[in-house]
Amino acid sequence: MNTILFVDDEIRMLDLLSMHFSQNYRVLTSKNGVEALEITHKMNVDLIVSDIKMPKMDGMQLLKEIKSTVDVPVIIVTAFGSIDNAVDAMKIGAFDYVTKPINIEDLEMKIKRAIDYAQIKNENTALKEKIKKQSGLITEDDRMKEIIKSIPEYATADLPVLILGESGTGKELIARAIHDQSKRYLTPFIAVNVSAVPSELFESEFFGYERGAFTGATSKKIGKFEAASGGTLFLDEIGDMPVEHQSKLLRVLQDSKITRLGSVEEVNVDFRLICATNKPLKEMIEKKTFREDLYYRINVIKIEIPPLRERIADIETLSIYYVQKYADQFKQNLKGISTDAMKVLKAYKWPGNVRELQNMILRSVFNSKSDVIKIQDLPEEIKIRTEAVDYKMLLVKKHVERDRIYFQLEKEFVNSLLARANGNVSKAAEIAGMDRRLLQNIIKKVSGGGEKK
Fold it and tell me: 201: helix, coil or strand?
């Protein structure tokens, strides 16, 4: 049973309310706001019905305290003719109000509405939290943490979003997280890879068509714009959309209307647009391959996702996550990744980003015959490319170390030579049997020019 707390300094009123509502609700009573506040901190209360005029703490102060501490709907009871108090209470956050003398049927209706509202709100909150946990957004990278931290703000704004980043960085994951945490989270999330839609099929895919609109149209089809109405339309690889179709998309965004092929009837559409691309749209605007007006229309909120090679900490975090995920899937007793294998993973540049890492871990888990992923379990192309990178880095380090040794030897040689010549450069050159200008250049390098690298 739902719990209602009635707050009033008139004992007779509390007895009457308790007698009437205790048949369908668990009823608690309190004579003032201070006592009521203590009850809400000790017990689970689904609704508070409070008088305004009470000693110690009146209903308005109780309402303020409740709104700052617990999330419980409050119905205010005010004297007839004191509607101003009720209006003030609604501004503070009261769910509703009733006037004295109380109409029991009116109060019953408002109590039911308030409890239904609170229940739906709690269910929605729980669902949103569940969705957030299932979003798959795992990171140790500071830039990614800032993006994830901002998702609730982006979700609430309900404005167009442009997500930039290399292929495989997780642009669709971010788009889904924004949708899932928005007010549209119970409505469709329609994802379309623009590059996979042939130019000649653009209108039928996006606008839909009526039966008989063209040869082969044997039934009506709802297009992507209409299917996403009420929800979110995610256009991946928007940079691959031909210019002639960009103008049609822009028109839909401006008018919020579409007309199916073979029809003259306009259909209202209301979707949130999220676009993603790995293309340099600003350069494309200069080359006239992307419309500037469309760019500014879709680029209201911009998110730039860094590539995996710049998120070294995420390589380990995501690898461990995917090992556990696929180990559970294949019912394997895998504890993790060996230190040597992890070094190989961190040295690799991941041109395919997170998508490539996920695929590689899947293959490694499938190939593993022990309780950890070892180097031999990794795909050959990962090991070969990593070894090539390591070889290049070894050459670089070798050259740096060689230059450092040469520099030190030259410095010791010059100091010893000048000491024998009492600081006279000409005499030192004569002793060394070398050109004076050459010696001066060496002296300048080791004394003022710094170490050559």
Answer: helix
Widest pairwise Cα distance in the chain: 118
DSSP per residue, 283-318: HHHHTTSS-HHHHHHH-SEEEEPPPGGG-HHHHHHH
Q: Beta partners for 75?
A: 49, 96
> 372's torsion region: left (phi>0), alpha (psi -120 to 50) or beta?
beta
pLDDT greater than 90 at residue 133: no
Are 205 and 197 within 8 A, CB to CB? yes
State pLDDT tens for residues 215-240. 888 899 999 999 999 999 999 999 99
Q: What is the pLDDT of residues 366-397, one digit of tens each?
A: 988 888 999 888 888 787 765 544 444 545 55
Q: End-to-end CA distance of the chain, in Å?
A: 78
Edge-to-edge strands, sheet with 161-164: 189-193, 232-236, 272-277, 161-164, 301-304
Q: Is the link from the previous residue into 55 a cis peptide, with omega within 30 of 0?
A: no
Q: Looking at the whole model, is its pTM more than 0.90?
A: no
For 44-74, give one letter per residue: b (16+ CB within 10 A) or e: ebbbbbbbbebeebbbbbbbebbeeeeebbb
The count of C-alpha atoms lying within 13 angstroms of the C-alpha of 339, restricted to the half-sphere facing its C-beta, is: 0
Name beta bridge partners: 148: none
Q: How far apart are CA 164 and CA 32, in angstroms?
A: 57
Tokens of 423: 């600081």
